[in-house]
What we know:
The structure is a homotetramer. In chain A, about 35% of the residues lie in helices and about 20% in strands. Chain A is α/β, with parallel strands linked by helices.
Amino acid sequence: MIIQLNKNISKEEKSNITSSLNNISYKTKTVNTQYKNYLIGIGNNDFDIRKIGNMPGVEDIHKVSMDYKLVSRKWRVDDTIIDLGDNISINRNDLTIMAGPCSIESEEHAMNIIEHLEENDIRIMRTMVFKPRSSPYSFRGLGIEGLRTISAECKKRNIKIISEVMEVSQVEAMHDYVDIFQVGTRNTQNFNLLDALGKVDKAVMIKRGISGTIDELLQSAEYVFSNGNEKILLCERGIRSFEKSYRNTFDLNAIPILKDKTHLPVIADPSHSIGIRKHVEKMALAAIMAGADGIITEVHQQPEKAFSDGQQTLNYPEAKRLYFNAREINVLKRNLL
Amino acid sequence: MIIQLNKNISKEEKSNITSSLNNISYKTKTVNTQYKNYLIGIGNNDFDIRKIGNMPGVEDIHKVSMDYKLVSRKWRVDDTIIDLGDNISINRNDLTIMAGPCSIESEEHAMNIIEHLEENDIRIMRTMVFKPRSSPYSFRGLGIEGLRTISAECKKRNIKIISEVMEVSQVEAMHDYVDIFQVGTRNTQNFNLLDALGKVDKAVMIKRGISGTIDELLQSAEYVFSNGNEKILLCERGIRSFEKSYRNTFDLNAIPILKDKTHLPVIADPSHSIGIRKHVEKMALAAIMAGADGIITEVHQQPEKAFSDGQQTLNYPEAKRLYFNAREINVLKRNLL
Amino acid sequence: MIIQLNKNISKEEKSNITSSLNNISYKTKTVNTQYKNYLIGIGNNDFDIRKIGNMPGVEDIHKVSMDYKLVSRKWRVDDTIIDLGDNISINRNDLTIMAGPCSIESEEHAMNIIEHLEENDIRIMRTMVFKPRSSPYSFRGLGIEGLRTISAECKKRNIKIISEVMEVSQVEAMHDYVDIFQVGTRNTQNFNLLDALGKVDKAVMIKRGISGTIDELLQSAEYVFSNGNEKILLCERGIRSFEKSYRNTFDLNAIPILKDKTHLPVIADPSHSIGIRKHVEKMALAAIMAGADGIITEVHQQPEKAFSDGQQTLNYPEAKRLYFNAREINVLKRNLL
Amino acid sequence: MIIQLNKNISKEEKSNITSSLNNISYKTKTVNTQYKNYLIGIGNNDFDIRKIGNMPGVEDIHKVSMDYKLVSRKWRVDDTIIDLGDNISINRNDLTIMAGPCSIESEEHAMNIIEHLEENDIRIMRTMVFKPRSSPYSFRGLGIEGLRTISAECKKRNIKIISEVMEVSQVEAMHDYVDIFQVGTRNTQNFNLLDALGKVDKAVMIKRGISGTIDELLQSAEYVFSNGNEKILLCERGIRSFEKSYRNTFDLNAIPILKDKTHLPVIADPSHSIGIRKHVEKMALAAIMAGADGIITEVHQQPEKAFSDGQQTLNYPEAKRLYFNAREINVLKRNLL
Lengths: 337, 337, 337, 337
């Protein structure tokens, strides 16, 4: 049960609604986001929702029985548009392309890529300064300093930044330097981190867990929304299977299924799924046809010399071709489907 | 090691080549297909292949060290074109579309679909008369009789037939009524069946095993080729994973990987992979962008009343739209990639 | 619905029962096994089974709604005992041990192992003469000739033989030389083969599919039973997963689940699951504790020189220790659980 | 490369060793644990380790080339014993049993279970106060208050506590109330949390990731060790697979493999793997036979009324029987293997 409350609902009106729900054995949870105030009713009893729907203070009411409610399309049928400011938004019509290096290696390295992005009208730069690595002895990123240098430059050129946050304490530290917090595949069910990200007014992109189900991904998004943040993107990046001839099994089926179940935008990551440079473009185009609202891809001036992920990273000419073809395909898709 | 032999090689010449290979500890296997005669050398020793290459009777020689050799692109770099006769062929340029009902239900039912196929210029009809079913109590198909009725009609209208063979003894029984033998996902490693199909001059489409690796699929194809039949197609139809919100995990990564490893055509089956009617079209288009040479899809005049697989079967208007869009996308793909 | 019929039921009585079932929209299938005659009713309607149960000719009636019926413990609560003759049987109390080489390599090799088995009172020899191999270029077994030589020797010493059948035509060829037909993991859903094995009066051991579900294994067993053969064993041999530090994921959970769902004996194959010689014994003992009625294991006089599977094969002293420990553990299990 | 340093190594000696390693292109990392000081050399060059081994200040030196080094048995061959104080330790000889409720529900509830544990000489109580839940609307545990109440009681009765930590900030909050920090399956690769746990002098039990590989589990343990904490336990709790007739696929193969690769103790969790109450005991015994050093299991006075995980939780008589049988089996195992 999702009850949208009037902006200026009185204390008494709200308490009446809560009591009515408690009377029919529903527990309630208040959710105040950057846009609206909701009351979530959690229970199973069947009853005439109009009884609640007609109470003073209620703007709208929807029955949603799944474990995820606020992120469900059962309730909100229109696609969510995520406004990043400065006329940059993530929306169904325009294909969103996020591109950039696996990690920032130096200031010079970053500036070179930012120029490449601007030239190609890529408005969201992806890059990591905190890197989750299986081994404690691997390169773990430049840390917050790395972000500061690129943030100023990107602001100048009107490019937004997406970067991975690994830990609650990093949320505040990164806040002023990123436009989208990325939750990585190992943290999809780091519920404390999701709670914390629900309390900031920045977009959050949640990557699907290494072997996370589609429902678990939606429930993780529900954590963020129910803590107060509606600006959520989901990302399919490949799941773990028995097949070892590529990096991860790119679950493109998940894209139409997600688009069906949720109003949130869905981004596809061909770089981390197939993990083989020469096949990244084809898989990006396939993901767009499957229904992705955007793609995220790794690009580097010299992939052979990248600190990490070089084998799946495009060089500038390859990336240019991908941007062009992805936009062409997206136009055709809009016309055909 | 693959040695192509001259058509009119003498017994002595061949025995000299074999001896030379045995001398360097290679075992040999003779492979005579509908097109050519080969000698396969199996061993690991390194040696100067020109020594063998220059022997009388040798047309060409290639080192291929993988477990699959004859189906490898390491040896034959051009895409294989499969000629089905009557100007119908499976080739990289024209998108191959195979469509039809899960199984034949009656003569009338079949005739109606054949008309639909002809109207839409679909030149290959898919349909089953032997159906593998998990439960012994399920409908198992009309048997060979079902094929006879449609075969005559299809020949009249120049439509080719692909149908599943489950057992060695069916190979002969089906031979005159089908143009492509389909090996189903439960029989990908039925080696006796593959052996038998290597001995007929009809095309064979091998579906990937329920949880078969890409390499296992190629090795199964090698069974058919090394028994004498070069007319082989591979089919990605989804693999088994932990995710249960659709039928099978459509492994679209497998398509560019297969196209890289083998010269054989690769067909994609969106119906059995996602298994949800309203998403079949999107996944078909995604598969084409990923590099598929063709698609195979289930269509029925009234999917709601189909004997089996109704939930993933398209009706005629849906199928029409898919054919059109698939062809459009294929043209764009040829132009862009 | 399973209806056990009286041995001397009249034609009319049977036809009355069938009509009554048809009247309530049940389809029927007659199953005559080596032991009993059954009528299987397939349908969903709810009705008072006593109405059928009281009809002349009915010995017993059970409602079983799952896809597998005859192999279900819902109907037959006692463990099935499989009598192999000569006082050798597979039963819950005595631990069944099947041991032997992956394949027969020569007559001398076989005789040596048969002696080892007799010395250790192992009454079932496992060995293959038809070997399913991913690659067409691998050793595929000695064929039927291999069985003839060992069959005579085993009969003399009262040792039974289990060997893999890969193809319908081999059923007849192997019939006189084996006591248990093994259906391998690639043939678990080779339904024609299962049909054929349902028509012989020899035991059949069905290995779980490479990524077969527990329910699919039970349905495959239902194929054999419903064709007329009640002598069925099931075998857990590991499933395919993402983990690559051993051969297959030994699904020991499947053992108590199978014992719960079916009355058939369950055998565990530690050799093919973990696939690492030094760990085979521990996994065999674990399988027994999990509830296995028996184990099947590979043994060879010189595993280092075995034609195949050497890395998972025990030598004689290792095997001896396993037999002893397995029997000890089985006694303790019987006392504790 | 692991170099154990003398306790009273001089600054100069250490700097000499570091320089020598740098000279051969090895990077170094200093690791000071509660027991010893190490220098880890990370590189690939081959050289004579005696050159470093003979330098002043070096106590011992070992080549370990895997991604995990300090937790490897290649270097430390003897099993690690984890001393929890008060004569309670986790060691290879005595079977460790951890038992308790999924979560603490009330003070009364906890006291009742603590009594049950004492009666049965169970020296480690498992219980959660922070619960990771897929849905934000599920019960998430009593929080730190829950721990305080039981901690005093457990100390009185000499029972140690293991409880799950989900977030860096909880490490300090929980520190005084737990004896073993549990890292849950969703946090196996929460590297910031592992870093933090490497800096406390309390034992840490890391559960294997939902679909984590054995190598990833060892690398996660390496995070804790290389941050300074040697008191690590590993826990096999089932992995995600396609099979849905139980909760998780209990990967018992992983136990002997882990025991082979690492000197750390390995605990098995039958409750969360099979997830079905009546099968928990069998799977616990199987895990012991496979080589587990201990088991962790859920017990509750009334599983039917437990707040969570009731379907896999044992009642007191069932648990009593499990404790007894597990200890019997462990004695037999020690005698046989």
